[in-house]
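User: Second chain of the day. Same drill as before.
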Amino acid sequence: MSWGETARSPAALFAVDVRSLAALRIGLGAVLLIDLAVRATDLSAHYADAGVLPRAMLLARAESRWRFSVHSLGGSASFEATLFCLAAVFGFLLLIGLRTRLATAVSWLMLISLHARNPLVLQGGDTLLRLLLFWAMFLPLGAVWSVDAAGRPPPAGGRIASPATAALMIQVCLVYWFSAALKSYRVWHVEATAVGYALNIDQFATPYGRALLAYPALLGGLSRLVYWTECIGPALAFMPVCIQGFRLAVIAVFGVLHLGFGLCLALGLFPVISALAWVPFLGTAFWDAVAPRTRALSTAAPALYGSTPAGLAAFVLLAYVTWWNLDTLPGRAWRMPSGIRRVGQVLRLDQRWGMFAPAPLRDDGWYVICGRLAAHHTVDLLHVGTSLAWRKPADVSAMYRNQRWRKYLMRLSRKRFASYRAAYARYLCTLWDHVHYGDESLRALRIYFMREQTLAPDRIAAPRRALLLRHRCERT
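Assistant: Same format as last time:
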């Protein structure tokens, strides 16, 4: 299909170049390995019984009974390390395209298992990653640029179209359409102050983001740009005129959007995964230009792919996730019965794209954790080696070791997660006493949250000290 070719059929709208699928496979494998490497630095803290969420506490959650997790079968760090290594092996097989279909399926199973083990450290990028892997199981990710394809003749068609390709592409669009639909507050589309509020969330904001606060007019334009890009941007990818040119422009716009998010807000892998989700939209003309040696793969018409049962399953599941997203909207017009919701909970098709919706947080702050030693000295348990300080840090987002800790501690400051605070306190006691003895051992601690409210993008209320928990360390 040339740059100016018009899409003449629904199949052409949802056709995906096999090189795009190969690039998606490589990206998914790389992200899985990076994600595992980052999580492994907190393997015991986040996934073992000695950490912040013991299995007994996890299994007490009502939704846990519907979520598959091999990781919940053992509570030791060594057990979790074994599963991490197994997931890394299959992630690498996916990366190189060896036994691709098996590697994709096992990678998806290991990912949803890992996510179920500690949902308190998850964010929107995790949801999108497992959804991309789910739809990828229906597609030939190893058709080209893979070990599986080595020594085989190239596929008869360079592009494929199926219910699964449609489901993958529409799933990406659902992320933005429902994110926009959930942004119901005036700060997005009337007052245009939403980005200003978002950059005042100190737990997320980077130095680049805070620097933008000096330009309120620019922030107003960015607020409207984000909202309307989410509303209409995905639809432009399916414009029937000059479809390849439109798609490339849409991909570039969303790539810049996510690059901006990543520079201004500490969001972990979310911007990378979001950009990766647009790779299937890259068309034949793009790959012919950047990878001319594979030009022979191109064909004039997309080939149909997938058996009838698989295609039917993909179509039904696409309808299901669309219904699920409609159910996330306010009101009861699209309410999904609880029995039907179980399917989404088991397959981890559950999703809600409330990214800074209905409006960005205005209630922000930072932690101060005071520890009392046996010798009656007071120490700062968050910044060991420094004196206890109540003043606001110069860079709040840098207080967190990584995005997983950031999400966990941001949740812990909320009332609905108060029941998890004691487990965190027990973890801090154990962690301290592993390397401190006698008079230096930890006897008790207090967790404070210095709550700070954003009254307007340019006006912040004085912080209020909130005591979240008093805890006495148990002696063994």
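The radius of gyration is 24 Å.

User: Great, on to the next one.
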